[in-house]
Design brief:
By secondary structure, the protein is mainly alpha-helical. The protein is 61% helix and 6% strand. The chain has nine helices and two strands. A two-stranded antiparallel ribbon has the order 1-2. A hairpin with a 6-residue loop joins strand 1 and strand 2. Helix 1 packs antiparallel against helix 9 and helix 4 runs antiparallel to helix 5.
Length: 172
């Protein structure tokens, strides 16, 4: 099965459906999870953890880190996946540390090239750390009109980076 395809169990019907990672991330987001949970949840199994643990790990990162409007949760979710995939397991493993940072930098560059920005409040055009900003986001239906694009973009970029890494690893 290609890396881009995942089997996902629809919670309400219990039936098996096949979708790519960006679609899976968007589906998780539409189920009510935050943007970070959606991205890491879609890639959890590929990164060596179960989806429930991934979603719990990312629970505080929505809305730009606990709704502070800082780094977009779709971005931090991808960064967590990169860390799980490449991160060091020994403090002295500087090679894996550098590989992780290299992959994060590449991800950030690609996300910024698509969207211009990395901060939630700038991407949305409102400050979700304030009641007024949250109301603006609600009134504008940003959860359905803006955020899904960032979740999909993040998942597409992450999928591409992980696939490129798999190809390089298989050539060595």
């Amino acid at each position: 099965m290609p890396f881009a395809i995942a089997t996902y169990f629809e919670r309400t019907k219990g039936e098996e459906i096949t979708m790519d990672k960006p679609e899976k991330a968007a589906t998780i987001f539409q189920e009510g999870y935050n943007c970070a949970q959606a991205v890491i949840g879609a890639f959890a199994l590929d990164c060596g953890i179960d989806e429930v643990t991934a979603k719990k790990m990312a629970a505080a990162f929505g809305g730009g880190i606990a709704r502070t409007g800082e780094t977009c949760g779709a971005v931090t979710g991808a960064m967590m996946a990169i860390g799980l995939r490449y991160g060091q397991t020994c403090g002295s493993d500087s090679e894996r540390k550098e590989k992780t940072y290299e992959q994060v930098h590449e991800f950030l560059q690609r996300f910024q090239a698509r969207n211009g920005l990395l901060r939630c409040k700038e991407l949305l055009g409102c400050d979700v750390s304030t009641p007024e900003g949250r109301q603006q986001a609600k009134d504008g239906d940003y959860h359905n009109t803006r955020c899904p694009k960032f979740v999909r973009d993040s998942a597409e970029i992450l999928e591409s980076l992980l696939e490129e890494g798999r190809l390089r690893d298989s050539q060595n």
